[in-house]
Specification:
single chain, about 350 residues, alpha+beta, Hypothetical Oxidoreductase Yiak, Chain: A, domain 1, Ribosomal Protein S8, Chain: A, domain 1, 2 domains, 11 helices, about 15% strand, globular
Amino acid sequence: MSRIQAADERQYLEEVFDQLGFTKENGQLLADTLVDADLRGISSHGIQRLAWYRRMIKDGTIVPSREPKVVRELPGTVLVDANQNMGQIAANLAMDKVIDKAKKVGVGIGVVKNSNHFGIAGYYARKALQAGLVGIALTNTRPLVVPTNAREAFLGSNAFAFGFPASPHPFMFDGATSTVAGGKIQLADKKGEKLPGQWIVDKDRQLVKDPKQAEGILQKAAFSEDQEGGGLLTLGGVDEENSNYKGMGNSIVVELLTGILAQGSISADTVRGKHDFSQFVFAFDPSFFGDPEQLKADATAMLDRIRQLDHVPGKTIWVPGDREYKYLAENKQRGVSIDDRTFEEIEEIGQELGVQVPAKI
């Protein structure tokens, strides 16, 4: 593992996205979402995604020249067509619209269709928080997840983010509805690290610990029409006795609010014919229900009580968001970490496009 300065990463990414045909504004947004993920320690959705984005641009899955557009809207709702561009660009447009609506009528709901990967879901929930609102963001993905008792992937890892005002930082839950996001398998493969816990199973629903074997399973599940079996597990792991059907239910809820509501592809069908993801963003004004500062204080008091509960010696009780904001503060000073394989990838892309690669620190 090495480190690079976040400012250098941002400049590199902005130049790369410019060379790939994105507008300056869109390239800055894309760079911001990846740097934001790396700063917060969510490396699975940071610069390590760049080589994947590059491949999807080359094969025509992503078309940088197409701008997202509003299809229709009402005072509290909006439908955005990503127009086969990056999900970040369309989801950002949708959340901006939703924030404006929530400020005017108290609530806003946005759906994005014909989209692609949109980075970390928490990026959009935090936009709502910055506007004094409560925010939610969801997305479906390629088919990576095996439902309860199934032996082949059907559901997406289907991220869910929720942000609520609190101090010293907001409550910020941002995670997949599977045990882990697929990007964590990619990272483990790049690092050659054995997989912990109950992350992924093979076609016989047996746990897989080898990251290279796991990455092969996900590649076939996500990019091949010939399903060979196996995939990520839902929250709850292998056994139904551990309530993994609840994780499956969470993932299905996201499918309903994204692919179904957008009248796009469900995760299972993104490898058959048309490739498209869908997103759902939501914001509401908490001041309708009470004084915003009192609500924030009450939330803070509850979260602090959780942090201070009697706990296992040597362990810390982390409330969702605590680690992110801890890493954010540290990495702004130390730089963001990057694995050796990802650094090789950004060197290759830099050479191909004539962009200077960030220096290691």
